[in-house]
TrEMBL record:
Species whose genome carries this gene: Cyprinus carpio carpio
Name this protein carries in UniProt: Syntaxin binding protein 3
Similarity comment: Belongs to the STXBP/unc-18/SEC1 family.
UniProt keyword terms in alphabetical order: Protein transport, Transport
Taxonomy of the source species: Eukaryota, Metazoa, Chordata, Craniata, Vertebrata
Pfam families given in the database record: Sec1
Length: 595
């Protein structure tokens, strides 16, 4: 059975942790305690299980910030962020009396000199090892990472922000640790934007920090640029994708169902409530997550038959089994039960999603797709977007869905008049909460049309008219166009300049090394191993995450890794947008219409 660490980025991170953190303590045969802060707890939870830690002689995992009983006969491994809070907690473990026999200290990234000196001054005799291991991101999926910093949205885009530069610095450090984990020194690219320069600023920071990481003379990691590209994308580039009702399984689930910490709660036929984790330990989830709900629901009868057939086989086996065969069957039982449990979970989740779709979402999808694409399912251009929007406003949809439709209408026009906007706000009855719409301007997305609107140019789109799509799912996230353009060497350098030098050769799906003779462009002739890393400043959607897998699958010679400050859902983004206009300590949440 695959372990949680056997999936792409997760596997790399777990291996790096083992090589850096656990290897230094392996010489001792003594069982050890592992002490984590909040971030490193999430980091380890994302890439390994307790059984993985046990196999490395770690017997207890503790919270750095909670009171703990002293265990003076045991050694402690501290894995933490280099923050003042963590350093103080560490010092308290050894002052006035040591809680542990010795300390092996590992920081996620660079520890500032003042904090390092403070720790050394107070605890030097107890510290056996002190290292920085350069992992300050979360590997959420095989090809997805997060900085685990939803607060960064407000810090970057709020007009009242006092820590924007500090936040961008921290994000840049996290991206550098991702590149170090992947062993890549990429060319860094950003979108030229006369209105907002956060992407350019972040690109500068990352490029400078990468140079310091890889180019210092005394650096054992010294290396030149690799054949990788890092694309810094601002959320404003595609405001449509986070607002649309996406109908692929994973995106739909996180939009329509209350899923907290990847935990889905469902009911069995007897009324008992159960919980299931939606992660890469669940093989069925991995197979289903990027499928359109129409395909997932098409799998349900097949899954039910499989469950019934398996139960029938079990019954027959029970009747015919020999003593020797029984032993073999018992070994297979845990895996069998797990597989059956996974199928039950997804039958329940797919049914939940279809109920939501038929009750409400189906009525919204046609209008949303027409507004987003600018044409109807037959390819006819939408000449009057208000006519498309009106049925949504007149139907008793909840407030959030109406706000989403109004935003798609405004995005389709590149902004609307103040008079028209006021009418829309009154119709949706959000006169006192107009920030849900107006605050998009803090991202650089035009809401009110002005004479200078020519300065905002929409991203040109790829022609996908030949691709088979569902009528209710015609929109393709802009980021997929960018990924494909980079891989095919078609992304315009004048619009997406390199921060410094570009890699000498980009080995995308159509690129051939200058040292190689060109033999044509069949898949066998293409060199594999190139990486495209995409970082979305301001949050990434589940539909954009899906695009990374789709482009990788279609272009076997290039792996696409995507990440962001945090993962977005439509509702969480609307809350973030609204709160941009709030003073610190103020908050608000959308009140749903009562049925």
């Amino acid at each position: 059975m695959a372990s949680g660490a056997d999936h792409g980025l997760k596997k790399l991170v777990w291996q790096k942790i083992k090589d850096s953190l656990i290897a230094d303590c392996r010489k001792s045969e003594v069982w050890k305690i592992l002490i984590l802060d909040h971030f490193t707890t999430r980091l380890l939870s994302s890439c390994c299980k307790m059984s993985d830690l046990m196999s490395e002689d770690i017997t207890i995992v503790e919270d750095l910030h909670k009171n703990r009983e002293p265990v003076p006969e045991m050694k402690a491994i501290y894995f933490m962020r280099p923050t003042a809070e963590c350093i103080d907690a560490f010092i308290n473990d050894f002052k006035p009396k040591a809680k542990y026999k010795a300390a092996y200290v590992f920081f996620t990234d660079y520890c500032p000199d003042d904090l390092f000196d403070k720790m050394k001054k107070n605890c030097a005799k107890h510290i056996k090892v002190c290292k920085e291991i350069n992992i300050s991101f979360l590997p959420l999926e095989a090809q997805v990472f997060s900085c685990d910093n939803a607060e960064a949205f407000k810090s970057i885009y709020s007009p009242n922000s006092k820590d924007r530069d500090q936040t961008l610095e921290m994000i840049a450090d996290q991206i550098v640790t991702l590149c170090a984990t992947l062993d890549e020194y990429p060319g860094v690219r950003f979108k030229k934007d006369p209105n907002l320069n956060y992407g350019k600023k972040l690109a500068e920071l990352v490029d400078n920090k990468l140079a310091r990481h890889y180019e210092l003379d005394d650096n054992p990691n010294k290396k030149g640029k690799t054949q990788a590209q890092l694309l810094i994308v601002d959320r404003a580039l595609d405001p449509v994708s986070p607002i649309l009702h996406e109908l692929t399984y994973q995106a739909m689930a996180y939009d329509l169902i209350q899923i907290k910490d990847n935990t889905y709660e469902y009911k069995l036929k007897d009324g008992c409530k159960k919980e299931a984790l939606l992660n890469e330990e669940d093989e069925l989830w991995v197979k289903l997550r990027h499928m359109h709900i129409a395909e997932v629901t098409g799998q349900i009868p097949k899954l039910v038959k499989e469950i019934s057939a398996s139960r029938g086989e079990r019954k027959q086996a029970d009747e015919k089994i020999s003593i020797g065969g029984l032993s073999q069957l018992m070994k297979k039982m845990p895996g069998f039960r797990k597989q059956m449990a996974q199928k039950t979970v997804h039958l329940s989740l797919a049914e939940d999603l279809m109920n939501h779709y038929q009750k409400n979402v189906e009525k919204l999808c046609k209008a949303e797709q027409d507004l987003a694409v600018g044409a109807d399912a037959e390819g006819q251009k939408v000449k009057d977007p208000m006519r498309t929007l009106l049925p949504v406003l007149l139907h008793p949809h909840d407030t959030t869905d109406k706000i989403r439709a109004v935003l798609l209408y405004i995005f389709s026009l590149n902004g609307t008049t103040a008079e028209n906007l006021n009418k829309l706000i009154q119709h949706v009855k959000i006169e006192d909460e107009r920030g849900y719409i107006l605050n998009w301007e803090h991202l650089g997305v035009p809401i009110l049309s002005t004479p200078s609107m020519f300065s905002f140019r929409k991203q040109s789109r790829r022609d996908r008219s030949d691709e088979e799509t569902y009528k209710v799912s015609r929109w393709t996230p802009v980021i997929k166009d960018l990924m494909e353009d980079v891989v095919e060497n078609k992304l315009e350098v004048k619009d997406w300049p390199y921060q410094s030098e570009c890699p000498s050769v980009w080995n995308g799906s159509r690129a051939v090394s200058a040292r190689q003779k060109h033999k044509g462009s069949s898949p066998d002739d293409l060199r594999s191993g190139s990486r495209l890393i995409v970082f979305v400043l301001g949050g990434v959607t589940y539909s954009e995450m899906r695009c990374a897998y789709e482009v990788t699958h279609a272009n076997k010679s290039c792996e696409v890794i995507i990440g962001s400050t945090h993962i977005l859902t439509p509702r969480s983004l609307l809350e973030d947008i609204y709160n941009l206009g709030k003073q610190p300590m103020e908050s608000f949440s959308i009140e749903e219409d009562k049925p």
